[in-house]
Amino acid sequence: MDSLKKSINDLEAIIENAYDGLYITDGDANTLMINKAYERITGIKRQEVLGKNMRELVASGAIDRSVSLEVIEKRSPVTIMQELRSGKKVLVTGTPVFDMAKMQIKLVVTNVRDITELIELKDKLHETTLEVNRYLAELDKIKTLQRQQTKFATKSKKMIELLETAIKASQFDSNILITGESGVGKGLMAKLIHESSGRKDSPFVIINCAGIPEDLFESELFGYEPGAFSGASVKGKKGLLEVADKGTVFLDEIGDMSLRLQAKLLRVIEEKEMNRLGSTKTIKLNVRIIAATNQDINALIESKKFRQDLFFRVNTISIVIPPLRERMEDVIPLVQHFTQRINERYGMKKHFSSEAVQLLMSYAFPGNVRELSNMVEQAFLISKGEIVEADELPLQVRNIVDTQGLLLDDGKKTYSEIVDLMEYKVLKNALEKYGSTHKVAKNLKISQSTIVRKMKRLNIKIRDNE
Question: Model-level pTM greater than 0.90?
């Protein structure tokens, strides 16, 4: 009898001194015992619950959910996670103890473990993982940038002045709007500004306003809380604006952004704060906005497709990148730059003949620098020898001259004469077609002064009223 009493005392001591909280009820959910760990974890004292039924405790609000009741109902172990009034998060597991003779539950033993610190560690690990992924992505971008040697190669006075302006502007946090035709290098200019700024060690996040579907754009831009919408991640997600905190956001093709999102972006710029989808919590932001478009923003404003107040906010500093046809002196350094890059990439030693370069100089490049880059690579890949000849250039370049009458001449003309003949024919035909140097300049997309100068040099008669 004494030994039995001692065993019971030992068992009670074990329960009382267990690290995890223990809550024991009978098969009808009447509270029989709790230990001091349960009191410590939950803040509920034993005198508040001993002898009371779990249904009564739930009804009174003392406990919001009873695992013991769920175990009795399901006749199997149940595990849930609860957040207590104190803010602690606990993992609660209830286990039935059966009377094997009657196959009835005689006890429910509930284990309560404080996992607040574990959850906090998990959240910190998740945040750290996001940070690591962000930095890895940035590192990858930097490596890619170095590999491709995406630097401006220019001898144009206009471009050099533009780069100087961009570098000066980079020292301030003012928002910048970069405009120019497709392919002129707006993204490269934005990257240059970021890398020259005090934010260079923070993220440079590119958001393609034309490339993200409208129904996904808002969640990509602002992020969302768990369960914010059907299909949302249970973990929620940081938006691109939040990822870019302390860095630079490059809004490419901002002219394609919907008016609804323009209004939300305006708030971000003005208030420097945002909310994730499904959340009322305000998140402070510290980002620099660089926007770009190849569209006429003023025309978009007039047609009510772009907010004028947003235009004023993003256009604190304006940078207009001229098309390649207005800075033809950049064709040769760009060809040299792309040639070096492709040679290094493919282990080749190719170069363009002077005739091929001169032919490229005569092309208007409607696709700008991007078209020239693609053209150089295409010519490299199809050329037979180490020298890329003029007749190995893409068809659209070769078609600007009468190859039978000029390039395949019988050898009596010098190269300079051939080029002059080519320009004479193009300008003469254009003047006959359009009637004035102003219209020729407009249709050939070159300045009128350049047209007049070339016509005078080639002795093409210009009307007296011009």
Answer: no
